[in-house]
Automatic annotation (TrEMBL):
Pfam families tied to this protein: B3_4 (PF03483), B5 (PF03484), FDX-ACB (PF03147), tRNA_synthFbeta (PF17759)
GO molecular function, one term: ATP binding
Cofactor dependency: Mg(2+)
SUPFAM superfamilies xref list: Anticodon-binding domain of PheRS, Class II aaRS and biotin synthetases, PheT/TilS domain, Putative DNA-binding domain
Gene3D superfamilies, A to Z: 3.30.56.10, Bira Bifunctional Protein, Domain 2 (3.30.930.10), Ferrodoxin-fold anticodon-binding domain (3.30.70.380), Phenylalanyl-trna Synthetase, Chain B, domain 3 (3.50.40.10)
NCBIfam families: pheT_bact
Catalytic activity of the protein: tRNA(Phe) + L-phenylalanine + ATP = L-phenylalanyl-tRNA(Phe) + AMP + diphosphate + H(+)
Lineage: superkingdom: Bacteria
One GO process term, biological-process aspect: phenylalanyl-tRNA aminoacylation
InterPro entries recorded: aa-tRNA-synth_II/BPL/LPL, B3/B4_tRNA-bd, DNA-bd_dom_put_sf, Fdx_antiC-bd, Fdx_antiC-bd_sf, Phe-tRNA-ligase_IIc_bsu, Phe-tRNA-ligase_IIc_bsu_bact, Phe-tRNA_synthase-like_B3/B4
Name under which the protein is recorded: Phenylalanine--tRNA ligase beta subunit
Domain FDX-ACB, chain residue ranges per copy: 574-662
C-alpha cells in the first residue's frame, strides 16, 4: 500500500526524519518496504499483514504513529447527521442472505455536478497508485484510501425499482466498468435491480449503472461483504482491485457509517451534492466487545514488569477502553475498538503492549532450560525408511506435488482419474500427482545422459479422486523407488531388504495391471494386505516421456508399511551348535520364493534359525531353487533323525503347492 507522507501529516504530527519514522513503524509491526521521492513528496510503501485490516488506510497508519509518538490524532471532518432534513427513503435494498453482507450504509445524494476532481484529490490518488476518473468516483476512492472502507456510487437514473443483494446462479454475466463482459462465478455476491445485475459486489461495478457526465443523483452504498466470498470470486475471475483487497479482510463493523458520512461531506464540498434521503444502515452500531485481561500476563509473556499506568497509556493510545474490574483488581476489562477486528484474547493485548513498548527494549535472556525436540512417530518412521535406503546407496528426490497433463498422459495415466487444480497459474503445474514415480522418472531423465546406472527414491503424498476422510480426496503417503541401468533383481532386492529391516514377513506377489508398467506387473501383498505395486515401466511410455530403459520401479503405501512393521526383538545366539541342511527343489513358475519361505518358517517353527536362497536356475526345463537351512534347539544339539523330523513338518505342505524335493 502506497501513501504520500504529506497526506499522513494532515492527521498526525510525524518526526522530521522519515527514515526514523519508517524504522519505528517497522519495530512496532508496520513494515515500510520503501521510501521514494515523487513530485516533492515522499511516498511510503507499506507491507501490511492480513490481520491488520485497520492499517489499510491513511487514518490507520496515522493512528499507529499517534500511539508511537503520543501525538494527537486529527480525524477528518464528516457530514453531521444533525443537519439531515430529508425524510425520503432511499431505494429499498433487500439481502437474500445476511451472511453475504452483514452490514452496510446507503443513502441518496443529489444536485451533484460531475466534473474533473480538484488537484489536491488527483495528486493524492495518483501518488497512492490510483487513476483519477471524475470527482464522484474519485471521492469514493479517496475515502477508501483514507478510511480503509470501500464504497460504490450508482447513477440512480439508471436503476429500476428496488434492489436485491444475493448469491449469483449458474449462467449469469455482467459487463463491468472496464467494458469487459464477465461470466459470474456461481455464489459470487451480486446486486440487481428489477431489470438487471448492476454490481459484481466487492470487485467491480456494472457498466449499466456507472456514474457519467449526465449523472445528477447517486445512490452511495458502503457495504461490508463476506471476505471468503469476495476472495473466491476474485481468484476465479483473476480480478483483483483495491476494493477487493480490502473486502477480503475483516473490516471495521462500524466503519461503513463513518466512511459514508465522510464521503457525503466531500461530495458536498467538491461536487455540490446534498444528502437527499434518510441514511439507512444495517448492522449498526455493532455490539461492543470486551476482553478480560490478567495484568500479570504481561510479565509472564514479555519477561518484564510494566506498570498498570504504562499498560493503560499504551492501550488507550491505541483506542482501547480500560475499565478496572470491580471483582478483581488483578484484571482489566478492556473494551476493544471496532476497527481492531484482530483482537479477541488476552494474548493479543500482550502483543499490542509489547510492540508499542518496543521489542528491542525487552531484556535479552537465555532460555532457562533446553526445550526437547519432539519428533512425531510418523515422521520418525519415515526417517527410518530413508536411512535404510540411503545405506543401500539410493539417492533421495524431492519433487513437486504438481505436474502437467503431458507428463501424466505420456506415462499412460488417464487424466480423468487425476485431480486438476481449479485455478491453475501455470499450465505445467495443473494436476496433482497421482504417483511418485512421475518425479522419479523426471530425475532419471535429467541424469541418465551422464550416468549408466541410477537409483532414486522419494517419499511424499499422492492424490487421487477417491473421497476419504471429511469428504476430501485421498492423500496417502507413499514411498517409491526407481532404477535405471540395473536389472529387476535390484529393485526387488531393495524392497526385500527394506521389509526385512522393518521386520515385515509374509510378503507375496500377485499379478496386477498398472497403466505405466508392462503387463503383467506385480501387486505386493503382506499378510493379505495390499502394500503396493512393482514392475517395469512400459517401453511405449518410456518413448513418450523421452526416456531410455529399462526402468524398474515400485511404489508402496507408508501408512500400511508402518502398520505391518514389527519391532526387532533381540534373540541370543544358540547355546548349542546349529544343524545345517541344503534342500534342492523343483518349483512351478507360479510359486514364489516368498510362498516357499512362508511354508518352511511355519512348519519349522522355533527350530528354524536361518533360511537362505543360495541358487536359482533351470534343470531339464524345470525351475530349480537351492535353499540353505539351519536348525537349532534350546535344549541340546540336534541329530540327523531330529533334523529329518523338523523337515517332514513342511515337506507335505510344499508338495501341496506343486513343489518337488529333488
Amino acid at each position: 500500500m502506497k501513501l504520500p507522507l504529506s497526506w499522513i501529516k494532515e492527521y498526525v504530527e510525524v518526526p522530521s526524519d522519515p527514515d526514523k519514522l519508517a524504522e519505528d513503524l517497522q519495530f512496532s509491526g508496520t513494515k515500510v518496504e520503501s521510501l521514494e521521492k515523487e513530485s516533492g513528496d515522499l511516498i511510503l510503501d507499506f507491507e501490511i499483514t492480513p490481520n491488520r485490516s485497520d492499517c489499510y488506510s491513511v487514518i490507520g497508519i496515522a493512528r499507529e504513529i499517534s500511539s508511537l509518538y503520543k501525538k494527537v490524532l486529527n480525524l477528518p471532518k464528516v457530514f453531521s447527521e444533525e443537519i439531515q432534513t430529508s425524510k425520503e427513503e432511499p431505494p429499498k435494498l433487500t439481502t437474500e442472505n445476511e451472511n453475504l453482507c452483514p452490514a452496510y450504509t446507503l443513502g441518496l445524494v443529489d444536485l451533484i455536478k460531475v466534473s474533473k476532481s480538484p488537484t489536491w484529490i488527483i495528486e493524492k490518488l495518483e501518488k497512492s497508485g490510483l487513476r483519477a476518473i471524475n470527482n464522484i468516483v474519485d471521492i469514493t476512492n479517496y475515502v477508501m484510501l483514507e478510511t480503509g472502507q470501500p464504497m460504490h456510487a450508482f447513477d440512480v437514473s439508471k436503476l429500476k425499482g428496488s434492489l436485491k443483494l444475493r448469491a449469483s446462479r449458474d449462467g449469469e454475466s455482467i459487463t463491468t466498468l472496464d467494458n469487459t463482459h464477465r461470466d459470474i462465478p456461481k455464489d459470487s455476491i451480486i446486486i440487481e435491480d428489477e431489470d438487471k445485475i448492476i454490481d459484481l459486489a466487492g470487485l467491480m461495478g456494472g457498466k449499466s449503472s456507472e456514474v457519467d457526465s449526465t449523472t445528477t443523483t447517486i445512490l452511495l452504498h458502503v457495504p461490508i461483504y463476506d471476505p471468503v466470498s469476495i476472495r473466491k470470486s476474485s481468484q476465479i475471475l483473476g480480478l483483483r482491485t483495491e476494493a477487493s483487497g480490502r473486502f477480503e479482510k475483516k473490516l471495521d463493523p462500524a466503519g461503513h457509517r463513518f466512511a459514508f458520512q465522510r464521503a457525503v461531506e466531500l461530495l458536498r464540498i467538491v461536487a455540490g451534492g446534498k444528502l437527499a434521503s434518510k441514511i439507512m444502515s444495517l448492522g449498526y452500531p455493532p455490539d461492543p466487545r470486551f476482553v478480560s485481561f490478567p495484568i500479570s500476563l504481561v510479565e509472564r509473556v514479555l519477561g518484564i514488569n510494566i506498570t498498570k499506568e504504562k499498560i493503560t497509556e499504551i492501550l488507550e493510545g491505541l483506542g482501547f477502553l480500560i475499565k478496572r474490574s470491580s471483582s478483581d483488581k488483578k484484571f482489566f476489562e478492556v473494551g476493544v475498538p471496532t476497527w481492531r477486528t484482530d483482537i479477541s484474547s488476552p494474548i493479543d493485548l500482550v502483543e499490542e503492549i509489547g510492540r508499542i513498548y518496543g521489542y528491542n527494549n525487552l531484556p535479552k535472556t537465555l532460555p532457562s532450560e533446553a526445550v526437547p525436540d519432539q519428533v512425531l512417530a510418523a515422521d520418525n518412521f519415515e526417517l527410518q525408511i530413508k536411512r535404510i535406503l540411503v545405506s543401500l546407496g539410493l539417492n533421495e528426490v524431492i519433487g513437486s506435488c504438481l505436474t502437467s497433463l503431458k507428463v501424466i498422459t505420456d506415462l499412460g495415466i488417464e487424466s480423468s482419474s487425476c485431480l486438476r487444480v481449479k485455478n491453475r497459474l501455470i499450465v505445467d503445474y495443473e494436476y496433482l500427482r497421482p504417483t511418485l514415480i512421475l518425479s522419479l522418472l523426471s530425475s532419471i531423465k535429467k541424469n541418465q545422459i551422464s550416468k549408466s546406472d541410477l537409483v532414486f527414491f522419494e517419499t511424499g503424498r499422492v492424490f487421487n479422486s477417491n473421497l476419504g476422510k471429511y469428504g476430501l480426496p485421498d492423500q496417502p503417503k507413499k514411498l517409491a523407488v526407481a532404477t535405471y541401468g540395473l536389472d529387476f533383481s535390484y529393485v526387488r532386492g531393495y524392497l526385500q531388504f527394506l521389509l526385512g529391516k522393518l521386520n515385515i514377513v509374509g510378503i507375496t506377489f500377485d499379478k496386477e495391471n498398472v497403466s505405466f508398467f508392462d503387463n503383467p506387473s506385480v501387486q505386493i501383498n503382506v499378510k493379505s494386505q495390499k502394500l503396493g505395486v512393482l514392475g517395469k515401466i512400459n517401453e511405449k511410455n518410456l518413448i513418450n516421456s523421452s526416456l531410455v530403459g529399462p526402468i524398474f520401479a515400485f511404489e508402496i503405501d507408508i501408512e500400511t508399511l508402518k502398520k505391518l512393521s514389527n519391532p526387532i526383538v533381540y534373540r541370543s545366539l544358540p547355546k548349542y551348535p546349529v544343524s545345517k541342511e541344503n534342500i534342492s527343489l523343483f518349483v512351478p513358475d507360479n510359486v514364489t520364493f516368498e510362498i516357499i519361505s512362508s511354508i518352511i518358517k511355519k512348519g519349522a517353527g522355533d527350530n528354524l534359525y536361518k533360511l537362505e536362497l543360495l541358487e536359482e536356475g533351470e534343470i531339464n526345463k524345470k525351475r530349480s531353487l537351492l535353499l540353505a537351512l539351519e536348525y537349532f534347539d534350546k535344549k541340546g544339539t540336534l541329530d540327523h533323525k531330529e533334523v529329518a523330523k523338523i523337515t517332514s513338518r513342511f515337506v507335505q505342505e510344499l508338495e501341496n503347492v506343486g513343489v518337488q524335493i529333488r
